[in-house]
Fold this protein.
Amino acid sequence: MENKVAMVTGGTGGLGTAICRALHDQGFIVAAGYNSGGNHAKAQAWQDKQKEAGYDIHITYGDVTDHESCLKSMLHIEEVTGQTIDVLVNNAGITRDGQFRKMSYEQWHDVLSANLDSMFHTTRLVINNMVERGWGRVINISSVNAQKGQFGQCNYSAAKAGIHGFTKALAQEVARKGVTVNTVSPGYIKTAMVKKIAPEVQEKICAGIPVGRFGTPEEIGRVVSFLADDKSAYITGADISVNGGLHMF
Ligand code: CAA
């Protein structure tokens, strides 16, 4: 997939890093979007670490809840690569877990804004170029908890389920233009997001996973690079589960 540009939002995080590396291994020019609360030094250190490991990845600051900020970030990528974005991986996301009966509007709004509104802000900026070029890939990271619901995640389950509705609708709109739009729904993957769950709750969740363990970020990167491939042109509007058997339907 040489000379094609892939942009991964939340690219410097746990899943994001593995996705960036998998796309880089596949030959893409890769850009990682980061927010990190504006901690540019942290992102720079991440970039240096990737370089040491043989991964030359561009970084770009952006807030996926803010359209103007996304625009600046995309323009920055176009400037440094001299190209428009061919593959967009909407991976940035947050959790603010808690039972709904105790949930604040802020918890609700922050999660919907970062996980679902962000689909508009980022995708709207790249989709027309993909259509005009006649080639593109939009890969949205959802969650097993969108498919099955999860105690303590009314906000997250709603946002992540919304992503799949978005995927299926957009997939139909651009299907004849060489652009595919798909969702990947990870289960519990060993990242900082899962490590935030209380250890006793983690244990209970893990006990319910047929494969008997949490997944690795690389197991998600593999599926994203599969969908990004030129040869995956007939897969669109799909939702691929990578959850160790936690939810089968
Ligand atoms: N089903 C039914 N009841 C449950 C339950 C469950 N799964 N989990 C907890 N409860 C019950 C407890 O038994 C307890 O009941 P009692 O009050 O009757 O004793 C009560 O709920 C716990 O009440 P708390 O006040 O402690 O609950 P809380 O409002 O503080 O919220 C929680 C607890 C933070 C939601 C905690 O249960 C939790 O962390 N759950 C896991 C949430 C989770 O899976 N998050 C995924 C994060 S990773 C991610 O999102 C990535 C991805 O895509 C998979």
Observations:
- The beta strands are 5-8, 29-34, 58-61, 87-90, 136-141, 179-186, 239-242.
- The mean pLDDT is 97.
